[in-house]
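Intended use. Records like the one below are meant for learning the mapping from a protein sequence to its folded structure. Do not use them to infer anything beyond what is encoded.
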Amino acid sequence: MDPATQRLQELYREIGPGLLAYFRRRPALAGAAEDLLQDTFVQAWRHPDRLLHADSPRAYLFGIARHLSLDTLRRQRPTEALGELPAAPAEAEDIRLEPMHRAIAALPELQREALLLKLQHELSYEEIASVLNIPVGTVRSRLHHAVRQLRAALRSTPPPC
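Structure written out for the chain above:
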């Protein structure tokens, strides 16, 4: 087996579950998550040199996943807002988190996307910049403004009973 194929298999085991979760968190993509995961790795396999020379293979793969997501959503013409959080069961902890979920869903799309890549997928600022194809300073700015808006929204929300 050549080194590129071997590395791709390693990355599939390491990063595949996170990419699958990335697709499944978008309600309009959940049904196609496995196919999108496979498409992500097929695209990476077509250009092994890019993957092997990427500063962060993880960010490179999330970038491919993001582009596939956007292409799929454009074709589907989703009826749901992009990046909405799925409905969760109403348990005590979920009830306490509901204001946070609403506040995140209310963020502007660009801020929400950067925030979710940071919180849900634990990407670094540099990796987020690579995925979104923007400067690191822009990532910092989007996250800063997102956190400010979340704090303001949560301060104005009454605590759950």
